[in-house]
Amino acid sequence: MKPSLLLDVDNVQRAFTTKAFEIYRRDFDSDSKYSIDDVNVFDLSPFFTKLPYSIIDFISDYAEELFFESDPFEDNISEIVSGLKDFYFIHVVTHQFKGVEHYTFKWLKRFNIDYDAVSFVKDKSLIKGHLLVDDGAHNLDSLMAEGVDVVCINRPWNRSWREAHPNNPSFSSLGEFLSAYDHESIVRKYLSK
Questions:
Q1: What is the 3-state secondary structure (H, E, C) of the chain?
Q2: pLDDT, tens digit (0-9, with 9 covering 90-100), for 72-123
Q3: Which CATH number is 76's domain given?
Q4: 0.90 exceeded by the pTM?
Q5: Rounded to the nearest 10 degrees, how much is the dihedral formed by the CA atoms of 185, 156, 146, 177?
Q6: Are 181 and 104 members of one domain?
Q7: Range of the domain at 147
Q8: How far apart are CA 46 and CA 105, in angstroms?
Q9: Same structural domain, 90 and 132
Q10: How many domains does the chain have?
Q11: Residues 63 and 79 grouped into a single domain
């Protein structure tokens, strides 16, 4: 049996924030110069100041574009996840609003991303696994507290987390994680238990 890899979707596999800025500029503020590189907090609200409603309503109104039409972060995402399957049971774990989950299933199928299980949950510590790959500091912290190994995918909003955890592995992309991480160590650690 393989160790379970808890694999985030948004801003790890799927370019959610990039698509959100594209929609925002198109429909609300064509003068906005913000991009994913400017987001230094895990919240888009400070960058979407001309929305006539909340960021949650924005995500709901544009759910299909955000969750289905977004591009993957890496063109070869299918091959990357397939490579990870050589080492792990792939458990996709992501937070979505109720009623829009089907877009993520369609997105995974659209990009031929192979997985073993999918869970939609706000509190990722509720899902048992051996290794978490995520961009959200709150998720990394909560799984670390549960004794799960964590890997940070570098995004501007998790810079302070990376600085606070300099010995914790972090990578610029999922592809870099596949090629540079010592996957065998997690397999050995798991098999020794």
A1: CCCEEEECCECCCECHHHHHHHHHHHHCCCCCCCCHHHCCCCCCHHHCCCCCCCHHHHHHHCHHHHHCCCCECCCCHHHHHHHHHCCCEEEEEECCCCCCHHHHHHHHHHCCCCCCEEEECCCHHHCCCCEEEECCHHHHHHHHHCCCEEEEECCHHHHHHHHHCCCCCEECCHHHHHHHCCHHHHHHHHHCC
A2: 999 999 999 999 999 999 999 999 988 999 999 999 999 999 999 999 999 9
A3: 3.40.50.1000
A4: yes
A5: -20
A6: yes
A7: 4-14+72-191
A8: 30
A9: yes
A10: 2
A11: no
As a whole number of angstroms, the distance between CA 153 and CA 158 comes to: 9
Are both 57 and 124 inside the same structural domain? no
Q: Taking a C-beta distance cutoff of 8 angstroms, is the pair 177, 151 a contact? A: yes
Token match 């995520």: residue? 134
CB 16 within 8 A of CB 94: no
